[in-house]
């Protein structure tokens, strides 16, 4: 049973869709719609490969919800930390549990409050992080989630939505994300749509969306799908996954037209 095959964040923060009503426990945080941040970086042919490489590092739910800049490794690890925690917390109900709210201490200080509703076929809830310190990362903000599944057919639908501030030893930045993962726990098929933004980081911000769902089969990493990375001045990258190990990169310098740059190994 896949109670919550989270990503994100990622995707994250892996991390991380227009999230459904994952309010849990009597009303969760408002839904987040990621948008291009005011401090967005200008994408260029010089940074295109590193941006695309990081965006498609393994192209699964966790890895997609990562920091796009190769020189910004912290978001990927932060999203992994977040989603591992949510996965562990969500994988705990197999009976009806309505309106449950708990507050726990985080590993290195701070608290996280979890409000959720669960049943034998679904769970939804929200986390509120208050100076929640995992060692290398400190989280503040809200992250909502929901998951439904069918034990007979294996079908599931997972959603995540959140707005978080992350503090690391070297940086502090904000993330907004939402995603939907639909698939089957028996066949291993998965289809992911997502959007997320990072702002306030030392190197600037960016927005990432799926223009085509990221799809995979038989529990493998994504072998098809398309990501759009948007930066300042209408600059964009279009990353088309052509196999589980390769992707094509196209660049738009702000004119509105994409030009093929090259293919990369992912």
How would you sum up this structure, described in words?
With about 270 residues, this protein is mainly beta. It has one domain (about 50-265). The protein is built from 3 helices and 12 strands. Strands 1-2-3-4-5-6-7-8-9-10-11-12 form a 12-stranded antiparallel β-sheet, with helices on one face. It starts with about 45 loop residues before the first helix and ends with a strand.
Short account of what is shown:
With 266 residues, the chain is mostly beta strands. It has one domain. It is built from 3 helices and 12 strands, in the order H-H-H-E-E-E-E-E-E-E-E-E-E-E-E.
Secondary-structure class: mainly beta
Q: What's the alpha carbon Rg, rounded to whole Å?
A: 18 Å
Total domain units: 1
Please describe the biggest sheet, giving its number of strands, its sense, and whether it closes into a barrel: 12 strands, antiparallel
What is the element string, with H for helices and E for strands?
HHHEEEEEEEEEEEE
Averaging pLDDT over every residue, what do you get? 75
Task: Considering the chains and any ligands shown, give keywords for the structure.
12-stranded antiparallel beta sheet, globular, 3 helices, 44% strand, 266 residues, 12 strands, mainly beta, single chain, disordered N terminus
């Amino acid at each position: 049973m896949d109670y919550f095959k989270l990503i994100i964040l990622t995707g994250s923060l892996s991390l991380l869709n227009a999230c459904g009503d994952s309010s849990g426990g009597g009303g969760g945080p408002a839904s987040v719609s990621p948008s291009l941040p005011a401090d967005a970086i200008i994408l260029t042919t010089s940074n295109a490969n590193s941006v695309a490489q990081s965006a498609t590092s393994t192209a699964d739910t966790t890895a997609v919800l990562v920091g796009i800049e190769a020189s910004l490794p912290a978001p990927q690890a932060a999203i992994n930390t977040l989603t591992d925690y949510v996965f562990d917390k969500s994988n705990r109900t197999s009976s009806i549990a309505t309106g449950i709210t708990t507050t726990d201490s985080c590993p290195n200080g701070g608290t996280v409050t979890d409000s959720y509703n669960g049943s034998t076929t679904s769970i939804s809830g929200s986390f509120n992080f208050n100076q929640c310190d995992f060692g290398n990362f400190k989280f503040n903000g809200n992250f909502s989630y929901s998951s439904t599944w069918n034990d007979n057919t294996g079908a599931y639908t997972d959603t995540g939505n959140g707005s978080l501030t992350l503090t690391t030893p070297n940086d502090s930045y904000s993330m907004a994300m939402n995603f939907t993962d639909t698939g089957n726990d028996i066949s291993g098929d998965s289809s992911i749509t997502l959007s997320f933004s990072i702002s306030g980081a030392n190197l600037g911000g960016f927005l990432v969306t799926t223009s085509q769902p990221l799809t995979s089969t038989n529990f493998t990493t994504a072998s098809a799908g398309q990501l759009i990375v948007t930066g300042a001045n209408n600059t964009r990258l279009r990353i088309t996954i052509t196999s589980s190990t390769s992707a094509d990169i196209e660049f738009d310098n702000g004119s509105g037209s994409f030009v093929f740059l090259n293919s990369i190994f992912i």
